[in-house]
Amino acid sequence: MSQIAFIGLGNMGGPMVANLAKAGHRVRVFDLVPSAVETAVAAGAEAARSALDTLEGAEIVISMLPASRHVEGLYLGEDGLLSRIPAGALVIDCSTIAPAMARKVAAAAGARGLQMLDAPVSGGTAGALAGTLTFIVGGEPSALERARPVLENMGRNVFHVGASGAGQVAKLCNNMALGVIMAVTGEAIALGVAHGLDPKVLSQMMAVSTGRSWATEVCNPWPGVIENAPASRGYSGGFGNDLMLKDLGLAAEAAMGVGAAIPLGELARNLYALNSRAGNGALDFSSVVTLLGPTRSGA
Ligand code: NAD
Question: Does residue 158 sit in the same domain as residue 194?
Answer without folding.
Answer: no
